[in-house]
Design a protein that fits this description.
alpha/beta, four-stranded parallel beta sheet, 10 helices, 9 strands, binds aspartic acid
Length: 293
């Protein structure tokens, strides 16, 4: 039984398979490869893209879904998460897709070896399917099968971001140069080049990944006025000018704080392409986990 807690659960060969399948699925919708599979989604944090993307991906492959709303489940009556999970597994689903506020929840549940566990976002630690769809979007954009030597600047609330965390592990594994750009309170303690101003690195980046300030994870407000923060970190036309830089963001975008309205409309900004690709990449991931492993 294979789980997806973070992208290092996949071998290099599996990653190649996933990116090839996703590319193929984008060209031609495949058969209902997962028509006998049933998946449960268990989201303890809110989600727009990830949950619907998993469901659409699964359904495109013929899988069935059961969604458990934790606020209406027995965890809200005091049942432990482990017990809720074990009860769900007693009904023999083929996988549980889970999002949770704690970093170690997916691994803890995966260790039970009751069903395939798929991490749809855990704390500030990992969001593997987002990292994989971001990587796929970059491969597609640069029309290549390797991003070795490309430079990505991750800009914003990096310390709170599971997208950045999973992304950094995957992108460095793939030979990319990762630069972190953030004000001090948003900068993680990682052994990577760190800058406070985007302007200092703008001429050497191929990709900018902008991130939202994760207000819900801040114990106390970090900036009083995000318009001040935006003056330094918002991705605007004035800042990137006509440079050939790919702009990514995992969403939700805080307009004119993370990325300006104008850049969101710019052809260099691939936020909706990321969302579109997310379905194909998740189809490929579900196939890899449920059929190939
Ligand atoms: N949607 C992403 C996540 O779940 C990013 C975000 O919420 O800012 O981590």
């Amino acid at each position: 039984m294979q789980h997806l807690v973070d992208t290092d659960n996949f071998s290099d060969a599996q990653l190649v398979n996933i990116f090839n399948d996703a590319k193929e699925f984008k060209k031609n919708m495949p058969d209902k490869l997962l028509k006998d599979k049933l998946l449960v989604t268990l989201f303890f944090e809110s989600s727009t893209r990830t949950r619907s993307s998993f469901e659409i991906a699964g359904k495109r492959l013929g899988a069935s879904f059961v969604h458990l709303d934790p606020s209406k489940s027995s965890t809200s009556k005091g049942e432990s998460l482990e017990d809720t999970f074990a009860n769900l597994c007693a009904m023999e689903p083929d996988g549980v897709i889970i999002r949770h506020e704690y970093n170690n929840t997916p691994q803890k549940l995966a260790n039970r070896e009751l069903t395939t566990v798929i991490n749809a976002g855990a704390g500030n630690y990992a969001h593997p399917t987002q990292a994989l769809l971001d990587y796929f979007t970059m491969l597609e954009h640069f029309k290549t099968d390797s991003l070795e030597g490309k430079t990505i600047a991750i800009v914003g609330d990096i310390v709170s971001s599971r997208v950045a965390s999973s992304g950094i592990r995957l992108f460095t594994r793939m030979g990319m140069n990762v630069i972190l750009v953030a004000p001090k309170p948003f900068m993680p303690n990682k052994d990577l080049p760190k800058y406070e101003k985007l302007d200092e690195v703008i001429d050497r980046v191929d990709i900018i990944m902008s991130l939202r300030a994760q207000l819900e994870r801040h114990k106390a407000p970090i900036f009083e006025d995000y318009r001040e923060y935006a003056k330094e970190y918002c991705i605007t036309k004035e800042r990137i000018e006509d440079r050939d830089i790919l702009i990514l963001h995992p969403g939700p975008v805080m307009r004119n704080i993370d990325i300006s309205d104008e850049i969101l409309e710019d052809s260099r900004c691939k936020v909706l392409t990321q969302v579109k690709n997310g379905v194909f990449v998740r189809m490929a991931i579900l196939k890899e986990l449920l059929l190939n492993s």
